[in-house]
Amino acid sequence: MMKDNICNVLHGLKPTLLMLMVQIAFAGVNILYKLAVNDGMNLRIVVAYRFIFSTAFIAPVAFIIERKKRTKITWKILFQSFLCGLFGGSLAQNFYLEALSLTSPTFASAMANLIPAITFIMAVSFGLEKLNLRTKAGKAKIIGTMTGISGAMVLTFVKGIELNIGSFNLNLLHHQKSPTQATISTKNTILGSLCALASSSSYALWLIIHAKMSEQYPTHYSSTALMSFWASLVSIVFALCFEREFSQWKLGWNIRLLTVAYAGIVVSGAMICVISWCVHMRGPLFVSVFSPLMLICVALASCTMLNEKLHLGSVIGAVLIVCGLYAVVWGKSKEMKKKNQLAPSQSTHELDTIVVEDKSNHRNSNGHNNNLHVINDNEDSQKDEHVQNQEKEGGGVEEISRNA
């Protein structure tokens, strides 16, 4: 009995444990990105290899799992998948890695939490969402958006005192930077902020396009494979425009191969499958709640293993961004609950109206004012007589209903 209870508890905790694993994996790829950049690997080549590995992994998975339920691909779906690969894949990752190289993994991870707020702004601009200033949910989304943007401003322009949270005496960058290099310049911080905002905007635009695409092409793995395919092509062309030396594209048994393989197979491949399972089990709101956990993991790893300097302004800005994220998510959840409750209540109201009308018609059927209802009653009585005649002939109403 106790063994069954433990199994049930573990089964209930499975989505939570899996999402913890996802966020730790996402934090790991940010650290590997910084190490690859420090090793001299071109950022655009990192993105290209990431989507090449991702396509090689997810395409066979999509073919095996969805081979019997795959929707027919049209030119419109192909164009939408190209836009998904362009905005959600190539542009989002190139801007994100540029922001990471100019600033730090903690900074880039914190700015990534602006995606829900930017998505809300774009959805309102395109007419896909309404402000709803009179409702608590609408006010929460607006306040959350403004809080997140304020946090991004604090994160960018306010430093404050330096916080020392300890170290493992492990510097994975293999060399000590000078004080001027260790401290991120204001120019790099501003450029990194703009790149991070561009990355979040591209990702938010991808979410809107993907939502439209999923209405006509609801196969998740196949759509992800198409997106990765287009993202790899765009990223390869983009990388070749800036870097044509074979030595930069060569992968050995080093941090470069580990970074692109981990980012492509583990993060863009396996973790996407895990996220899709968690969305299916608990919904998208459950998944989005775990996003700030990656920021915490990245901050701890960067300070203890990458010798990153953490300032009070960065902490305050990150906290404001996370609070804004939860406010937007809370407002969206309230709207979804209201929509789900509104549909059954409307159908119940229609049933009540029908019953009331039927009772009023029944009261008026004895008089001569409701001729239409009398005619309907006569027609019903004729139908009843017809059914009784069929019963007498041996047909049987029950046998007719069974055959039907």
From TrEMBL:
<feature type="compositionally biased region" description="Basic and acidic residues">
    <location>
        <begin position="380"/>
        <end position="404"/>
    </location>
</feature>
<dbReference type="InterPro" id="IPR000620">
    <property type="entry name" value="EamA_dom"/>
</dbReference>
<feature type="transmembrane region" description="Helical">
    <location>
        <begin position="313"/>
        <end position="331"/>
    </location>
</feature>
<feature type="region of interest" description="Disordered">
    <location>
        <begin position="360"/>
        <end position="404"/>
    </location>
</feature>
<feature type="transmembrane region" description="Helical">
    <location>
        <begin position="45"/>
        <end position="65"/>
    </location>
</feature>
<feature type="transmembrane region" description="Helical">
    <location>
        <begin position="286"/>
        <end position="307"/>
    </location>
</feature>
<dbReference type="GO" id="GO:0022857">
    <property type="term" value="F:transmembrane transporter activity"/>
</dbReference>
<feature type="compositionally biased region" description="Low complexity">
    <location>
        <begin position="363"/>
        <end position="375"/>
    </location>
</feature>
<feature type="domain" description="EamA">
    <location>
        <begin position="191"/>
        <end position="329"/>
    </location>
</feature>
<keyword id="KW-1133">Transmembrane helix</keyword>
<dbReference type="InterPro" id="IPR037185">
    <property type="entry name" value="EmrE-like"/>
</dbReference>
<feature type="transmembrane region" description="Helical">
    <location>
        <begin position="221"/>
        <end position="240"/>
    </location>
</feature>
<dbReference type="Pfam" id="PF00892">
    <property type="entry name" value="EamA"/>
</dbReference>
<comment type="similarity">
    <text>Belongs to the drug/metabolite transporter (DMT) superfamily. Plant drug/metabolite exporter (P-DME) (TC 2.A.7.4) family.</text>
</comment>
<feature type="transmembrane region" description="Helical">
    <location>
        <begin position="12"/>
        <end position="33"/>
    </location>
</feature>
<dbReference type="GO" id="GO:0016020">
    <property type="term" value="C:membrane"/>
</dbReference>
<feature type="transmembrane region" description="Helical">
    <location>
        <begin position="77"/>
        <end position="96"/>
    </location>
</feature>
<feature type="domain" description="EamA">
    <location>
        <begin position="17"/>
        <end position="144"/>
    </location>
</feature>
<feature type="transmembrane region" description="Helical">
    <location>
        <begin position="190"/>
        <end position="209"/>
    </location>
</feature>
<keyword id="KW-0472">Membrane</keyword>
<feature type="transmembrane region" description="Helical">
    <location>
        <begin position="260"/>
        <end position="279"/>
    </location>
</feature>
<feature type="transmembrane region" description="Helical">
    <location>
        <begin position="140"/>
        <end position="161"/>
    </location>
</feature>
<keyword id="KW-0812">Transmembrane</keyword>
<protein>
    <recommendedName>
        <fullName>WAT1-related protein</fullName>
    </recommendedName>
</protein>
<feature type="transmembrane region" description="Helical">
    <location>
        <begin position="108"/>
        <end position="128"/>
    </location>
</feature>
<dbReference type="InterPro" id="IPR030184">
    <property type="entry name" value="WAT1-related"/>
</dbReference>
